[in-house]
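queue> holo job accepted (FE2/S2 (inorganic) cluster)
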Amino acid sequence: MAAKLVQLTINDKEYDIAVQANETLVDVLRYRLGLTGTKKGCGQGDCGSCTVIMDGNTVNSCLVLAVQANGSRITTIEGLESEEGLHPVQKAFIEHGAIQCGFCSSGMILSAKNLLDKNPKPTEGEIRSALSGNLCRCTGYQKIVEAVQSIAK
Amino acid sequence: MGNFEVINSRASRIDSPAKATGSALYVDDIKMPGMLYGAMLQSPVAHARIKSIDVSAAARLPGVKAVVTAKEAGLVKFGVSPARYDETLFCHDKVRHHGDNVAAVAAVDLETAMHALSLIQVDYEELPVLITIEEATAEGAPLVHDGYPRNICAEIHQEFGNVKEAFKECDLIKTTTFVNKRQDAAFIEPQGCIAHFDIFGNLTLYSSTQSVHYVQRTVAMVLGLPIGKVRVVKPYVGAGFGPKAAANHLEPAACLLSMKTGKPVKMNFEREQVFMHSRGRHQFFHKFTTGVKKDGTIMGLDHECYLNGGAYTSFGIGTVYYAGSLLGGPYKLRNMKYDGYRVYTNLPACGAQRGHGGVAARAGWEQQLDMIAEELGMDPFDLRQKNMLVAGDVTCNGLKISSFGMPECLEAVRSGSDWKSKKGKLPRGKGIGMACGFFESGAGYPSYPSDTYHDTVLVKLAEDGGSALVLSASAEIGQGSDTALAMIVAEGLGIPLEMVRVQSGDTDFGVDLGAHSSRQTLMTGHAAKEAAEDARRQVIEVLSEELKTSAQDMDIKNGVVKFKMEKPDFTPLRTRYIKEHRGWLDNPATDDELSFREASRIAFLSRGTIVGKGKYKPPVPGGSSKGATVGTSPAYGCSAQVVELSVDEETGKITIEQMTDAHDCGLAINRTSVEAQMQGSFSMGLGEALFEEVKFDSKGRLINGDLAEYKIPSCLDMPKIKSIIVESNEPNGPYGAKEVGEGAIMPTIPAILNAVYDAVGVRIYELPMTPERICTAIKEYKEKRIDAEYEDQSKRNRAGSSIRLYD
Ligand code: FES
Ligand code: FES
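queue> job finished
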């Protein structure tokens, strides 16, 4: 298979990478670029653990081919921390005990961030809808919802 | 409750910053130089004789570094309990379920490994496939394993007291049945591992496991290596809920491939393989006959249970015992008879999952108690209160109840849910239901017969006194054990939590049976407390020598040495400390109190590295009947839940609207983590109640091995939960702590069942409560009501009393 050169802006950094036509974005992030904060719980678009923000929308990066992402701006969990420290969503998750095993947390935090970027004062229903593509088997979601609510006010 | 500095608080988990930033490394995040990728060849059929295996084409494929089958692996049998070691690393004579392991390959990349698998030729001679218990136990059915007639893998017959006699005194004897479906643990991180056999002959295995100890023993035994040459390390783990508590086949296979190639080998399960090798919840077929007196006194329970075990035993011996023994509480059950059968079939093996063995039993029986309460005209709370065990009781099957905050749990959910104003008063279609739960705090015995300590912990003080390092082989899998241990050690040493670091999940750090049977807080917690106190004792001893002050007159609190009597002159010690830290900017000022930091530096100067040692082995539990070891535990947690829901009678859809949960966890080490366990348990119970079911076709092939077709609760399925922590002081727990991780799931399903009845008047005897099942039940109920308009309530309840074993 012929490799194709793609350009990705990931966490404000530019990458030129030669990828195979069938390579998924999650695999490029994890196995080529070492950005292993993005998780891969199913590889089939069902769990949301591979969620990243691509051009302002959350996507399951296991369903996106790297070639489709060509030219995109991507935010992964590694891109949330800034000079001011952790992102407020990260802080809220830590403070509210919204993280147990942590395997869903990267995707969950990114979905929450994207929601708040677009809708700073979501209702509980809006929060639950926005997070409904991110499965968590540990928490029962309550502390996650509480964490998001704490910064949605 | 005592006055604590660190525990019993809502401290943030020590692992959450790493997890919130994506820097926490799980096994698939690890990459090693020269690493190869392994893959397993798995049987496409559920039952077949293997006539031949030809790996030559696979072995010749460029990029393939090793191909192994039973020929290379040998035929050492393993499993969970030595009484039923019935698995080999690879099948050699036959395959027993769809997905059974036949061979493994290591190659330079995963694509090559997968390609190589497709080149392996296996000649199968198919055998009849046994799916149901009925098929497997039929006269003349083929045997899944030789030596187990009628495919009975294990059979339990126990009687405590005399049920028959007890029933003679009863005013009401009720029989009902209950069946759940095979549930998958559905942790979000699939199992995976990396094995590295180095040039010195040391094997290191990184694995997503709940027990480095059991994996170490299994790998060493299967591959014929001394335990001392096998190190198992658990990186961050994306949860387990039971199935990861025993070795999976990837682990010894990756080790063998690494031994063959001398390279690190990584192997992962795909999501479908997680389902195929799940070792999660069994399907249970229960039949309960309970006798009560008019006043509600429960006199006896006659209980029969069949488990569809799948192709191997795994945890199944424990499961079939637990299915009976865990009904020994939380009620005073004077007489109990139990007949349990675990049956081999050609489905993937079942094992242990949150609430091991007890969840379906609890669901079916708590539903029956609800029916009994109604027939007696009692409130369900009153029936339970009347029969509740109290601290100090010993159950008829020998479980010793040392603390029991059940009255508080009942009261908390009764008032917390406003039960009085709702029960029986909600409009049709809306319902409220309650149930209770009961679970152990750690199994009394290891899975192999042994006098081993269950847990050892070391607490090592840094030589400048700046921190304490906790070394343990326990397993943080998301439940929060690292944080609980750090808090216990901080409390025991008398220092702030920030000064404690935890390194866990590594067999190099000691022995720990791991995260299962809700044991880490109580059992590892004991060892951690002992280790912390041992380190503290050593520091105080040195101070006592140096300051000529009695050890009894000193204490360490919040990182500061406290003198109970007159403060001795410790300036010489401080001078020594400061002299050694010339140039440091944070040296103590003259009139500061003597710090732990200074004290432990002085202790190091006097004795070398200060290491506190702790260990724990549960007191030998009682019980003389066969299998009395299963279910015995140093302590028991208990819980009560109230669920409010609505049922759409048109569509059959159930919406859970409110949930009130109270759990007695002894002393809560970390209050936030206790609630988190309660809420997580509820969501797993809700999933099993409403939609979870692993399905197979008529040939035993997995149908819904993905998280789209096998639905687990999402954010939208979960109601608001009111979590109420009840704290009894458990005498056998460290600082009074006991379990919460599994007991909390127990009341969930029956509370939902009872609420559905309250809403629409139907009793459901088979899970999951899908819309179709609810619609059918409502239809039957309505028809029956027309038929028997004048029949009384009690007769109506008999629907479903017949056994519906095979669905
Ligand atoms: S890994 Fe992408 S959705 Fe599960
Ligand atoms: S914290 Fe474990 S899956 Fe969400």
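queue> Chain B touches chain A through 57 residues (CB under 8 Å).
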